[in-house]
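Notes from hallway chat w/ T.B., transcribed later so I don't forget. T.B. wanted the structure written out for a chain they're using in a teaching module, and asked if we could keep both sequence and C-alpha cells in one place. Agreed to drop them here.
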Amino acid sequence: MINQLNQDLIFGATKKVFSISQLKIHIADDCKNDITFTKTKTYFLQYFAKSIDNMYYKFETQNDGMIFNHPFKELDYIFNQLENFYMYDNHSIKLRFSLKEWFTKHHDTHYKINNDPRSSRFYDNPETDEKFINLSKGFLHKIIKPFNTYSQKVQEDVNKIISHIKNVWNSGIHDNSEYCLNFLAHALTGHKMQTALILKSGEGTGKSIIIDFIIKHVIGESLGLCTPRAQQLTRFNSQLMGKIFVCLEELAASSKNDWHSLSDIIKDLITGSKLDIEKKYSDVVQTINLLSLIILTNNDNTLKFGKEIRRYMLCDVSHDQVGNSKYFDELIKVCTLETGEAFFMWLTERYEATKFTFDEAQIPLTYAKMEMKERNMTPILKYIKSEYVSKKLGLFDKSKKHGMIKLNDMKDNVNGDFSQNQSTQAFHNILKSDIPIVKIMKYGKNKDLFIEPVDYDTLKKWYVNKGFWCEDFDQYTKDDSELEVNNFKAEIYFEKDTKIKEQSEKIKELEQYIIMMENKYKIQQEPIIIEEIKQEPIIIEEIKQEVIIPVPKKQSSKKVIVKTKITKTEKVTEVPKAKKETPKKKIVHMHMIDETDDEHYSDADNINDLF
C-alpha cells in the first residue's frame, strides 16, 4: 500500500494552502477508518518532500508555487502540534501512529534537485527511476510561437533592440555582434555559456537598459539577477536558486587579495558544472549550474583578471549615442512585455539555427580586449614583447657566440617593481611562469644561469596563441626592410651574419665603383634626345659641307654612353676596330654641331676619338 501511495503522489500538485488543522482532520479520520493513514500521508506529501542531500522541501502555493529548502529540525514546529494517535487493529491490538517517525524514517521517496527552466517542476527519469524537483519556475513566456506571427510594429521594436546590441554594444562590428547575439540566444534559452560578456564604457551608453529589459520582460525576474556584490554569490547565495542569467555591475575590490578572490568566484560561476546554494541557517544544496554572466563597468580598474582572459568577450562599446536623449527615449519606449515576448521567440529561433554551429570558444579579439591584455601583462611579458617580438627578433643575444641571454642581464633590463631586490631564483620562477616555453640552463665556468635561445617564429606564435600579439592591433617598431637580417634563428646567427657582412661589403664596393664611373662620364648639358620611330629608318638631314676625316691606323674600341630622356636607360654603343688600310677620304653626313657642345663627347678629346 505504501509503494502504491508513493507512485501516485505528486509533490506540489495542489493549489490550496497548507493547514495544520486540515492535517489533524485527516489524521483523526484515518484513526477511525484507515490503518494505513493514506489520507494523512497524501495530504502531507503534497507540501513536503525529502531530498538526497538530507533536506526537506516545502511547496508554498501562496508564493506563486515557490519551493523552499529547510533542515529537518524545522519540521518540529508542525510535529509538535500533533498528538500521538492510537488505534486498534482487527485483533484489538493498540497501535500508535507518529507522522514524524513515518516521514523521517520510513518514507523512502527521495528527490534530486534541479533548477532547469526547460524542464517541468516535477519529473521522473525513466532510465534511472529517479525523481526530480525542479526549483526553477520556468520561463516568463511559456508558449512558443513563430517570431513572424507578431505584428509589423512589434517586429520593428525587436529590431531596435537588436540594433542597439549591434551598434552600441559592439560598435557595428559584424563578428563581434554575431558572437554577442549568439551568446544571448543560448544563455537566455537556458543553455549555459562557458564564457562571459564584459561591457566597459563611460556612463550614458545604455548598457543597463537592455539588461533591465531582459530580466523584466524577456526571461522574468525568477530567472535573472543583477547585483554589484559578486562576493555574496558564494555564501548565503540563495538568490541564485533557479537563475540562468546574472549581471554583475560595478564590481568593487579594494586590495590585490580581493581581486584574486573575486576573479576566482567569477571563474567558478562561469566554468563550474554544479552550484552550491547556501541559505542562512540551512545546509548547502547542490544544483546544476546554468548561470551565464554579463559584467558591466565604467571603470578601467574594475577588471583585473590576470594575464589570461580567454573566457571573456570584451565588447567594443560605442559612445556615439551618449547624450542623445531622443534615441534613448525611443529605446525605452519599445522595452515592453510584448516586445520582450517577441524578442524571446527571436532568440529561441536563433538558438535552434546556431546550436550546432556556434562555437563559444571562438571569441573575437576586440580592441577592448587587447587594451585589457596590455594592462594585465606582467613586466616580463611587456619587455619581451617590446624588445623582441615587436622588433622581429628571437629571444637571443646576438653579441654572444652561443646566442644565450644571461638571466641576470634580463632581470636588470626588465622594468617593474617586482624585479627590484628580487633574487635570481625568484626572477627565474616568474619568467618560467609567464612564458613556459623558455628554458633556463647553467653555462660557463661559473655555472651562471642563461636563457636558451628561442627563435622569432616560436616566440611570436606563443604570443599570438595567448592573445598577447595580434597583427590587426600590434605594430612592429621598424620597417621590415630594416630588420630583414634579424629574421633567423639564434643557433645559425653568426654563420648568416658573416655572409651578410661579406655581401654588404661587396655591395658597398660596387656602389662606390658605380658612383666613380658616373662621375667620370657625367654629362654637363642636356643629353641628346633621340626620337624613337617604330619600324621606320632614321632620317638624317644632309649637310652640304664635307668633312674629311683620316682613319687612324690603330684604334681601340671605346664605349660611349648616350643618355636619352625617353627611356631613361643607358645605351652603350660599340665602335668597331678600324681596318688596316691606307688613309682615304671619307665623307660623313651629319648634323651641324656647335664646337662648344662638348657634352656629346665628354670622354673624347676630338671628334676623331668617336670613330
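Follow-up for T.B.: DSSP finds 17 helices and 20 strands in the chain. Might be a good example for the class.
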